[in-house]
Amino acid sequence: MKWLLKPRMFKTALFWQFFASYFILFIIPVIMANMFIYVYVVKVIENEVENTNTISMRNFSAQTDTAFSSLQVNMINLLGASNLKSVMKQFGDASKTPQYFEWIHSLMDQLNTLDTGEIVSNAYLYFADYDLVIGFNSDTNKETFFKYFFPVDERDKAGYLANFSGKKMMQFTKTYTLHQKVPFTDAILSSSSNISAVMSYPFNSSHPDVYLVVSMKQEELGKHISVNQKWTAGTAIVDESGGMISQTGDMRISPKEWQEIMRANTEGALFSDGKTRALTYAKSHFNDAWYYVSLIDLETLLKPVQRIRSFSFLFLVFFLVLGGFISYYLSKRLYRPILEIKNGLSSHNNRQAALPVQAGGNDYDLIKQFSNLLMSENKQLSQLVSGMFPIVQEDFIAKILSGEYRDNLSIALYAKEIDFPYDPSVTRTVLCIEIQYYSRVQGHISETSKSFMMAELKEQIHKSAAGTVWLCQLKPDLMACVVHHDPFLLFGPKEVSEFVALILQQFNAYFKATIGIGRKVQDIGDLHLSYESAMEMLQRKSLHSRVEVFGQEAAAGDQPDKPLLDSFLSAQEVNRIFNLYKSRNYERLLQSVYDLLDMAVENNASASQVKGLCSDVLNTWIRAVELERKEMNIPFYSGLFVELNRCITWEEIKTCFERIHAALFKQEQTADRNKQIAEILDYIHQHYGEELSVERFARQLNMSVSHFSRTFKDEVGEKYVEYITKHRLTMAKKYLLETDMKIDEISEKVGYMGRNSFIRIFCKYEGITPGKYRTIHHHTM
């Protein structure tokens, strides 16, 4: 290396010295930073995609499960309709009554309600033992229906018709092709891939009488389950064996591969093959054998990483070239004066002692000394920069609002230390924003989602305020907004509260927001006073779900010495509740709460007033119940108060009292229900010859048809239809043996519209015709 230090080569050596220093001090840290950024960005993207995809999967799986559950309930309700039973009773009749055709059209209307236009594309009733199919716009024989109204492709028809056997409880068929034809011709207009849900009736029969079929287009179902993310290549509903129920996009996955993925990965985890795609899945709550699967395109997902890698390479090349030019320029500039110094030293030996070069040194030593000088200066600059520690401004604002910093001088010094600029002469006002999540949302939203929501809220306020506010989150459910008054733009707390209310309205589906406006302060040290007054304004919030704003002007107009509503029950109200409980008028107990809440709404009562009154009502209910039961269950009653205190809207309080009412007075309500069922049985015994529809009694008890049917069977021990049929046959046998009435007269008297239907029901339960029954028993008598 000595040859590099020769005078004639010193310029090259100087260049490499500069370039080596540049490479060590700058290029190597840049390379390491690029590698770290590359690895970190890949990890962040994967984590973000996993979290985002998990949330999206939960949303679309919950939405799809809800759609299928709703469809299942509608199918069950349709099959349990009395019109279907009435139609089936007249299948054996040679002549059809006008009522029969009314029932047919009623069934068509009910089928038409299943055609939502989103998932369901067609629906029809397939009668197993009769050559009849009823669609939402036709009733015809099976051959005509499957040829013109529902033309399944001939290659799929045999497999499709095989579904109409055995018990089916919303079983899904394999995918089939359905054509759209010109009416009553074989001309095909278009074709689509479909899947059907099949349900049989009677539900528990292995040889059902009728099948309800709901057809869904694969394309529309695919849209319903699609995830709107650019990196998602496809989504699908897959069963445990790997069979595709429905899919959208490119979902090439074999059953064997699906089984291996399920064994090796947990629900919600991101599984990658390390090549071009990754996969995640979530289990369906509608069908335990179903899974919602999302396929992720790794090439699309990692495009930002590829760009970063390319940019990093170009960035490195640029700095290498730049370093070469800088090194060459510096070496050229520095070599000239050094050469002049050397020549001067050669001609003036007496001046060598004044030069920074040590005795016996050379030009390289001189360059080294200059380099040490530059390094020393860089070190001092680095120490100066490292002394400027970043301080979180939001923490500084929070301490001012809490009153920890009150002195203007200390605030100014601390702000200067952290480089926090502010104008001490500006008038300011604090706005407190309180967030209260609804009960229906509280159990379904994670803390991460809440954090993202608050971050989005802050960002929107910052963008709208254009630098005229300071934001600070003091608690998870409380945010402070410091407004700087601008007399020229006429921009103050009222204007800020208006656009903040508009922003909060966007989140009204998740939480109720209340804005409290504090009083104006001139000194920044008095901001804690404005904050305290804003917190006092929040106490004026009501139970409405809308965004509410309370300011000092509204407070000045109130009359605190005349409260709009007492927060406690009067002695007269307490005695009335005790009397209602003793008289077992439990419905009136609940209605009295509704009346109090309605009065509170009319008087525009605050939330604290209403909750105080409701707590007093609940306490009175508990005292009334415990006077008889004497079973003080403190944890249970304490939970009722906690549940009531969580309510933030009128609707939530009403729903809460309904649950509490049902829990406290459940036993007595059951006794009332027994009395109501007994009255219905007595009515049936007296009016068995009239039309006794299940809908009538369900409305009478304020129940759904299915709920009434279950309640009737639990109380009586028999199904509603079975009980009426047996009682009518009992009375019919009495008329057959004790009177000379004709069969037609008896059938009409016991509630049957025709002779044939009466004879068929009689044979089903007695094994013989009514005439044969009369003959046999008259002979025995």
Spatial gap, N to C terminus: 138 Å
Helices, by number, come to 29
The major sheet is characterized as: 7 strands, antiparallel
CATH architecture group name of the largest domain: 2-Layer Sandwich
Task: Characterize the structure shown.
With 781 residues, the chain is of the alpha+beta class. It has six domains: 2-46 and 305-386, no CATH class; 80-224, PAS domain (Beta-Lactamase, 2-Layer Sandwich), CATH 3.30.450.20; 226-301, Beta-Lactamase (2-Layer Sandwich), CATH 3.30.450; 423-556, Alpha-Beta Plaits (2-Layer Sandwich), CATH 3.30.70.270; 571-664, no CATH class; 670-780, Homeodomain-like (Arc Repressor Mutant, subunit A, Orthogonal Bundle), CATH 1.10.10. Helix content is 57%, strand content 14%. The strands form three sheets. Strands 1, 2, 3, 4, 5, 6 and 7 form a seven-stranded antiparallel β-sheet that branches. The chain is flat, with a radius of gyration of 42 Å.
